[in-house]
Amino acid sequence: MSERIIIFDTTLRDGEQSPGASMDTAAKVEVARQLERLGVDVIEGGFPISSPGDFEAVKAVAQAVTEPAVAGLARCVKGDIDAAAKAVEKAKKPRIHVFLATSKIHMKYKLKKAEEEILRLAVESVKYARKFVDDVEFSPEDASRTDLNFLAQVFDAVVDAGAMTVNIPDTVGYAIPEEFGRVIKHLYENTRNGKNAVISVHCHNDLGLAVANSLTAVVNGARQVECTINGIGERAGNCSLEEVVMAIRTRKDVLDFQTRVNTREIIKTSRLVSKLTGIIVQPNKAIVGHNAFAHEAGIHQDGILKERTTYEIMKPADIGLTESRLVLGKHSGRHAFNERLKDLGYSLSASDLDKAFAAFKALADKKKEIYDEDLQAIVEEQLVTIPPTYQLDYVHISSGTSTIPTATVRLKKDKNILQDASCGDGPVDAAYKTIDRITKMKCRLLNYSLQAVTSGKDAMGEVVVRVRHGKNEVTGRGASTDILEASTKAYVNAVNRLLFLKGSSTAKS
Ligand code: KIV
Ligand code: ZN
Questions:
Q1: Atom 5 (ligand 1): residue with closest C-alpha?
Q2: Which of 124, 134, 294, 365 has the fewest CB atoms found within 10 Å of its own CB?
Q3: What pLDDT does 458 receive?
Q4: How many CA atoms lie within 13 A of 318 on its CB side?
Q5: Domains in the chain and their CATH numbers?
Q6: How far is 175 from 172, CA to CA, in rounded Å?
Q7: What are the tens digits of pLDDT across the range 253-307?
Q8: Which of 44, 145, 202 maximizes ligand 1 atoms within 8 Å of its Cβ, making it the mutation to test the pocket?
Q9: Residue 152 is inside which H or E element, if any?
Q10: DSSP bridge pairs for 227
Q11: Quick one: average pLDDT of 451-464?
């Protein structure tokens, strides 16, 4: 029986450190529930001391899932460990993850501490964290640039102090597979505690080697891989979960390992994370990119038709992609629609189904071919759990090469119809300024992304915006075949989320 690799997902912590990727508590809980369905072993929910919002998010994640362990990150500082302990205390399987840099460069310039002090702090912190939970993980930050003898010393000391997992981060993505493999092998074979704790790895992708380094580490004794969905994370990101899991699955012949991941949930998880963070997946991204299973060249198409394995090493269905991309059209009925949604993993209440079906019919009138991605966009749009304080009733935008972009927007609020108009620097700016005038909320647009979720001229476009108002920051989403309508819907969605966050509808009608 092949050995199991523990999949530690840090999408909600390191992944969230991607510029512009921050997720609110509701979004983190949604991702955590999906990660549980995906079958990850550990979810790192966040860095509780870093902000009250992160603390609340980790706490909510800890209570939202039962199968995976939930970890909170902490520096080797009592206040950090207290916050992490409190945030994960309600988790069925709580974990505290403490870290401290051990490389010369970090000790000298960042921490201004000598080796003895680092060692003492690491040991004390692990012991302190063990007062709260049994499951403590320690990370010597910048391990790949740490003196190997010192790293081994820290490794043995933190395991003696009670760490069950020691994570070896390639913090700056500097390592080369063979070299990194040697480090792991040394810790596994030549330290006193090499076999008394789980060796974990956490690789960044600055040189594009995060997955290769993680796999080489596994071959050399690591039994936990830290990774993120879509490989998002600080700078160039982290080891991509879907890549490492599918490599293990696809190359069983040379990688005699297994994971608990239900790979059929991969594509759904990838899309959810992309949608909630606003970070678009590059089309040629391995496993989850739009083109990952597309065959363009005639020779390839011909080969695939004769025998799929000529050009396909994985089945699209194995990651949850349905073989047939074209699913429904204008004449499809409610039953077929519901069956398709069930195949896609959605189980809707009768009233949600009514709403989603009405949206589907409206889309089918505008668009001949409805793809799975269209259905996903529809369902996710219809299942907004926040109250729709404002609803988009009408938008008209005029812009062109020699026209000042102007928008007229009509919103519904309860029974009131609110309408206004404004100019802007572009059509989207004009619409957003108009909405600000109507809601009397001066919001700041921090990020705007537009993604075609299907292909063709009549593709469904999804807009994700990140908006700030006062201290609150939210993500709004909107989908439509008309990108200006999708943009407007996304902004209205963000406004509703802001109002929901504030706890009351302060905007005056
Ligand atoms: O990259 C890193 O070193 C980290 C640690 C906190 C594990 O993210
Ligand atoms: Zn990291």
A1: 141
A2: 365
A3: 76
A4: 15
A5: 3-277 (3.20.20.70), 294-383 (no CATH), 391-508 (3.30.160.270)
A6: 8
A7: 999 999 999 999 999 999 999 989 989 899 899 999 988 987 667 677 677 777 8
A8: 202
A9: helix 148-161
A10: 9
A11: 80
CA 229 to centroid of ligand 2, rounded, Å? 14
Can you tell me which atom of ligand 1 is nearest the CA of 143? 3
Residue, of 348 and 489, whose pLDDT is higher: 489
User: What is the torsion angle, in degrees rounded to the nearest 10, for the CA atoms of residue 20, residue 26, residue 31 and residue 32?
Assistant: 130
Q: Is residue 509 very low, low, confident or very high in pLDDT (cuts 50, 70, 90)?
A: very low
Judge if the beta carbon of residue 99 lies within 6 A of ligand 1.
yes
Helices (H) and strands (E) in the chain, counts: 16, 18
Q: Starting from the CA of residue 228, give the closest ligand.
A: 2
What tokens appear for 180 in the block? 């990194």
Residue type, 477: R
Contact 236, 206 (CB under 8 A): yes
Ligand 1 mutation target, pool 10, 141, 151, 213, most atoms within 8 A of CB: 141
Neighbours of ion ligand 2 (CB under 5 A): 14
pTM of the entire predicted model: 0.76
